Amino acid sequence: MTDSSGETERYRQGLQTRRSVLGDAHVDGALARETPFDRPFQQLITEGAWGTLWSRPGWTKRERSIVTIALLAALGHHEEVAMHVRATARTGATMDDICEALMHVAVYAGVPAANHAFKIAKAVYAEMDANTEDGGDKK
Q1: Rounded to an integer, what distance in angstroms lies between the CA atom of residue 64 and that of residue 91?
Q2: Which residues form the Carboxymuconolactone decarboxylase-like domain (predicted)?
Q3: Residue 139: pLDDT above 80?
């Protein structure tokens, strides 16, 4: 169902879930960069990935986070790996969880894919730790 703004309930749910996983700053930035050209794509991922998949019952955000990072690493989507590792501060996935997921990537998708993902995750965790030490909150 669409409201007077043209937003569907699935879109609103997706935006709420997306914000809970990636944070307001990330989502606000993505929305600010949205243009008429990529608006349909942004709507698709907000409704499909966030409003449908990430909002489904049955798995926690932690579990979805672990699986997502493993899949992104296996497919070599490095920027997305970094983004989702940052999101672990909100999803509850631990460094140990991500280590285990990347060990699976090494066996099932290849050592080079896992090696690069470990490199990315280490850099992101170091950045998050530095932010915390500087008075930030890892979010």
Answers
A1: 9
A2: 41-123
A3: no
| pLDDT interval class at 3 (50, 70, 90) | low
Distance CA 71, CA 11 (A): 24
In angstroms, the CA 63 to CA 93 distance is 7
Residues 5-52 pLDDT 10s: 668 999 999 999 999 999 999 999 999 999 999 999 999 999 999 999
Distance CA 138, CA 124 (A): 10
CA 53 to CA 56: how far, in whole Å? Answer: 5
How far is residue 132's CA from residue 74's CA, in Å, rounded to a whole number? 29
Give pLDDT tens digits for 73-100: 999 999 999 999 999 999 999 999 999 9
Residue type, 13: Q
d(CA 107, CA 113): 10
135: left (phi over 0), alpha (psi -120 to 50) or beta: left
H-type helices in 8-110, by residue range? 9-22, 24-33, 39-44, 61-75, 78-91, 95-108
Tokens 């280590």 locate to 99
